[in-house]
Amino acid sequence: xxxxxxxxxxxxxxxxxxxxxxxxxxxxxxxxxxxxxxxxxxxxxxxxxxxxxxxxxxxxxxxxxxxxxxxxxxxxxxxxxxxxxxxxxxxxxxxxxxxxxxxxxxxxxxxxxxxxxxxxxxxxxxxxxxxxxxxxxxxxxxxxxxxxxxxxxxxxxxxxxxxxxxxxxxxxxxxxxxxxxxxxxxxxxxxxxxxxxxxxxxxxxxxxxxxxxxxxxxxxxx
Amino acid sequence: xxxxxxxxxxxxxxxxxxxxxxxxxxxxxxxxxxxxxxxxxxxxxxxxxxxxxxxxxxxxxxxxxxxxxxxxxxxxxxxxxxxxxxxxxxxxxxxxxxxxxxxxxxxxxxxxxxxxxxxxxxxxxxxxxxxxxxxxxxxxxxxxxxxxxxxxxxxxxxxxxxxxxxxxxxxxxxxxxxxxxxxxxxxxxxxxxxxxxxxxxxxxxxxxxxxxxxxx
Lengths: 222, 216
Known about the structure:
The complex is a heterodimer.
Chain A: H1 10-46, H2 51-65, H3 69-79, H4 89-115, H5 118-126, H6 131-161, H7 173-184, H8 187-221
Helix pairs in contact in A: 1-2, 1-4, 1-7, 2-4, 3-4, 4-6, 5-6, 6-8, 7-8
Chain B: H1 6-42, H2 47-61, H3 65-75, H4 85-111, H5 115-122, H6 127-142, H7 144-157, H8 169-180, H9 183-215
Helix pairs in contact in B: 1-2, 1-4, 1-8, 1-9, 2-4, 3-4, 4-6, 4-7, 5-6, 7-9, 8-9
Protein name (chain B): Polar amino acid transport system permease protein
InterPro entries (chain B): AA_ABC_transptr_permease_3TM, ArtM/GltK/GlnP/TcyL/YhdX-like, MetI-like, MetI-like_sf
Keywords (chain B): Cell membrane, Membrane, Transmembrane, Transmembrane helix, Transport
């Protein structure tokens, strides 16, 4: 018996793997930006004066956190057309990822905003800064500094989870792997290489976020 | 053409949910046992053992679970094992759970003051005795909330095994959906079943967190 591993197909496949990886990076970039912005609103709503707003956000967070991402994705992609909302796979993937991400980051961002002492806000207001500027210049940078590690982990978890969107035919890394293995009949080798690509991406993303984050946040703090 | 009433859908989904529950329990139990082994390596006195465990954990936390499942499903037959979806699912989730649980418990072990180890050795206990009687019980107690939290994550992760062909809740729902063309109802119900499984555990995690916070 004995099975000889064969990586000869790899030469012709680098383009597919690269374009799949680019799609995965695009998806997670969109999700991160949209997710963080939405979770600022989510965190604010959770601390608002109106109980109904607080309850709505809490219900949304619990609903997302207690159901699998795959089911959320299927619900959005296959279930919504019943109401006439027919989404392109890429749009459905971005929507599902953002909704999922926001449920987790709302808690993270909220705890970061809580961690900024009230005196910071008062001092900035006393200097005559308008409220929105107080938030952007004073509160947000300090909150981001606190939550940065948790946020980074969540972004990486979401990137790894995004492999699931291959199931609705979004042409990201896992989808390209599926296509490749169907063509080369080298399933193990294909998934092995692609797994390594994911590993490299998660290590690289963590390094990048920490390096970039330290500089940007230190600048914002000064 | 078979007609599905609403109750047929519910009944079939609930029957399939048994496999989701069974898979979660088996993977959690297996993952706990393997996780303790990884934990022992991770906190070992030998540097290369610690390093090896660190890489193991990093590997499982740095790659998608779906890829891990694919590699097992397609890789094990190459080594001469006959593998079915159930075996790959159990093995994949167990390995993945062991990495996450080991990392959670390591946090617990390292949060204990070194005086706990010293006290153990002053009682004449050997390394194993110190671990078994003093360190691990406390580490498990501190990390109960994240451990239950991980169980929730594990239950949700079982959904991925549908992709390698294991007949659990999601795979069954895909089949029902193909027969009934009612994705909204079917996936809504599936989400509801997962929610009913996970939400009590999430609540329990919150209670445990509050209890731990009060103790400190």
